[in-house]
Amino acid sequence: GHNGTDGLPGMNGPPGADGKRGKKGNLLSFCFPSECLIKSLINPRNVTKMESTFGTWMKDTAQLNDERIWVAEHFSGRVVKEYASIASFENNSSEIVDVRKFYYGCGHTVHNGSFYYHMAGSSSIARFDFHTRKLHTLSIDNALHHSLAYLLYNSKTYFKFAADENGLWLIFASSVDESITVAQLDQKTFSVTSYINTTYPRTKAGNAFIACGVLYVTDTKDTRVTFAFDLLKGKPVNVTFDLRSPGGVLAMLSYSPKDRHLYVWDQSYVRLYVVHFINDE
């Protein structure tokens, strides 16, 4: 018999004539680029106060049922803390995980059960599988990766991972012209499938994140988003919006397609913002 057609996001498809029911549509891939631009950030809320100025806090950006939180404190280290839930995080009850090599910066992410990070002192990125404890590395050519020539100076970051509705990306600064470059990663093979040069200079950037195929870059004081680039169309888009008042170190700014929140580490506070897209009106 015929299988049912796949459903719209969040709804099952109709049953096939004699075959199996269509698969449930996937909400994460449901993005119309023109309407998928960010209008504003709303409802900021502090989750907890951390001891370190620098750091990254992460939930798995792909696995819907995984409530664990991982924290990499400071901009360099070899262990991350694993919390079973937001409650454990607030109670500071954690396990320690050795990720096998030293990470550098505040640009890591957790995606599909693996911790992705920049291997300190090298032009390589690493993928550490929390379940198998296996480590895979990938060298990125023509990327600035040492001598303080940071992609994101404010957070001491050379390589910034980003996960959105399209999958996994890597943001870095080209060693050829120092412009912000984005690589699309294939997570199954841990390889680069394409490179996109935005031609935007790294020296103008405070932080950066990707949502719905669009790269957003803040100003050097991290107060507002002043540049946006559509990675799927390969051209800049005209979007600006406020982020925060000036002052203190913004160590981390990452989007999660799972809950459409921005995960922030700002002046030692870990904070969540709700991302308000134009089509949410």
Question: Key features?
Answer:
mainly beta; Neuraminidase; four-stranded antiparallel beta sheet; globular
How would you spell out the order of helices and strands?
EEEEHEEEEEEEEEEEEEEEEE
| Number of DSSP strand runs | 21
Radius of gyration based on Cα positions: 19 Å
Number of helices: 1
- Based on the coordinates given, report the CATH architecture: 6 Propeller
Number of domains: 1
CATH superfamily: TolB, C-terminal domain
Explain the overall architecture.
This protein has 281 residues and is mainly beta. It has a single domain (38-277), classed as TolB, C-terminal domain (Neuraminidase, 6 Propeller). The chain is 2% helix and 48% strand. The protein has one helix and 21 strands. Strand 14 and strand 15 (214-218) form a beta hairpin. The model is unreliable at 4-17 and 21-30 (pLDDT under 50).
Spell out the blueprint of helices and strands:
Blueprint: E1 38-49, E2 55-58, E3 69-73, E4 76-83, H1 86-91, E5 94-104, E6 109-111, E7 114-118, E8 124-129, E9 135-139, E10 159-164, E11 167-173, E12 179-186, E13 191-201, E14 208-211, E15 214-218, E16 224-230, E17 235-237, E18 241-242, E19 250-256, E20 261-266, E21 269-277
Antiparallel strand pairs: 1-21, 2-3, 3-4, 4-5, 6-7, 7-8, 8-9, 10-11, 11-12, 12-13, 14-15, 15-16, 16-17, 16-18, 19-20, 20-21
Summary, kept brief:
By secondary structure, the chain is mainly beta.
